[in-house]
Amino acid sequence: MMSIGKASTAYADLPHIVAARERIENLWAAGTDYSKDIVDDARSNNRMLHLDLDLTGECKLNCFYCDRTPDRYNSVPNRVELTTAERLDLIEQARNLGATTVEFPGAGEPMIDVGFWDIIAGVHGHGMTPVIFTSGYHLDRSAADRLFQLGATVFIKHNSSDTHIQDKMVGLAGYAEKANAGLHYLLEKGFNQSIPTRVAVDMVVTPQFNESKDFEEVVELHRWCRINNVHNYIVTLIPEGRADRAAMILERERSNNMLEAVRKVDEQEFGLTYKPSRPMSGGYRCRQVNVGLFVNLFGEVYDCNGLGRFLGHVRCDSLETIWNSKFARHVRTPVQDGFCLLRERVWDSVQSSGMERKLHLYRRFEGRHGADEVVERGLHAMHQGEETPTVVPSAGSV
Ligand SMILES: C[S@@+](CC[C@H](N)C(=O)[O-])C[C@H]1O[C@@H](n2cnc3c(N)ncnc32)[C@H](O)[C@@H]1O
Ligand code: SF4
Fold it and tell me: What is the CATH number of the domain that holds 376?
């Protein structure tokens, strides 16, 4: 990664920074830049904008913080993974519901899914934006070219500029150099030449590795992102999977301090003003729960790939039926605007885990309003074949 010093006020005149003073979402990655008015309009027209879709559970890395729950690994006994054809069909269904983005948040490393290129081409062919989260381990120059032609936006992992720390965090020697080369290919190709940008770095901040008293590394990466028109997805850990322990996420106060350190840089060096929304730094606000659905490896549907409230199963019902079910409407009624229930409940010391957590709201809803047949059918389908392992594969000690 390019090294930089303290920014001068000249950076406040960069075109993407000027555009962000009009609309902060101009600094978010293309395909995820849902502003409040876009979300409000979609809500009033019951339009779905965003599909999150898991691809393969395979991954060559072994990140000590990986948030995947057991249902996001391959080969869960008696659960049948979606095929590429089924995924392509879901993409078309999402398009018919109004979707403009299909995001691939995992489950493992999306780029090594056998259907990866057909699926990205399918999204592009429907005029939607493919958004890919990748470790960057398999991102060579020709893949970067191909992704560029297919209109993709890429979130690439970058936890530390110290290659030793980066390798340690993912449990694989030599990873950091490959991922840094991957980021270089994206910039060389021009993924950061549009507004909004088509490239983001994903940095998870953990007390174990990359947190320091004044968050120097976070601030430095943030500044580099701003100067280079790279979306800064700098966040505290999602307490799920291997990270489902309070000790692995920054305390609430530390998280607030981190957001404040970033906000000051934005205000003083880039002339950007906003109210930060924990847990996202830099003024980013997740609004996906109001406008999207997440489908996991086996076709189980949730509101988001983090917390995940179970909504149904695509092998029993169409995406449209699930989107319009009474429980799904109930889940997306409160305006999210950046609020991350999953992290907040851990900071509030609410105890629950696994599937119990994913069904908690439904059980309360059921008690008050009666069962939702779409959720019930989905649960039946999931349990029919189920023998969900209760243990997440361990990353070993860190
Ligand atoms: C599950 S990964 C899948 C994509 C790819 N294998 C990767 O790691 O980039 C998707 C994104 O979630 C991030 N992630 C993984 N575990 C996390 C956690 N506990 N909290 C926050 N983000 C996490 C990863 O860094 C990555 O950017
Ligand atoms: S977070 Fe790490 S271990 Fe988990 S899927 Fe991504 S690269 Fe693989």
Answer: 3.20.20.70
Q: Residues 199-207: what's their mean pLDDT?
A: 92
Residues 6+ apart with CB under 8 A from 355: 310, 388
Residues with CB under 6 A from ligand 1: 59, 65-68, 105-106, 108-109, 133-135, 155, 157, 202, 204, 235, 237-238, 243
Percent of the chain with pLDDT over 90: 67
Encode pLDDT of 289-299 as tens digits: 999 999 999 99
Q: Note down the domain range covering 225.
A: 12-383
Ligand nearest to the CA of 132: 1
Instruction: State if pTM tops 0.85.
Output: yes
Give yes or no for residue 62 CB within 6 A of ligand 2. Answer: yes
Nearest-angstrom CA–CA distance, 389 and 391: 6
Number of structural domains found in the chain: 1
Q: Is residue 33 part of a domain?
A: yes
- Alpha-carbon distances, residue 267 vs 11, 279, 320, 333 (angstroms): 12, 19, 43, 33
In a domain, 2, yes or no: no
- Interval 30-56 mean pLDDT: 96
Q: Give residue-wise pLDDT tens across range 77-118.
A: 778 899 999 999 999 999 999 999 999 998 999 999 999 999
> Cα(125) to centroid of ligand 1, in Å?
27
The ligand placed nearest to the CA atom of residue 74 is: 2
Q: Which residue in the block uniquely carries the two structure tokens 């270089």?
A: 184
Other CB atoms within 10 Å distance of the CB of residue 228 = 17
Q: Is residue 395 part of a domain?
A: no
Name which of 307, 293, 133 is nearest 204 in CA terms: 133
Residue to mutate, 58, 66, 284, ligand 1, most ligand atoms under 8 Å from C-beta = 66
Q: Which pLDDT value is given to residue 389?
A: 41
Residue with CA nearest ligand 2 atom 4: 66
- Report if residue 321 sits inside a domain: yes
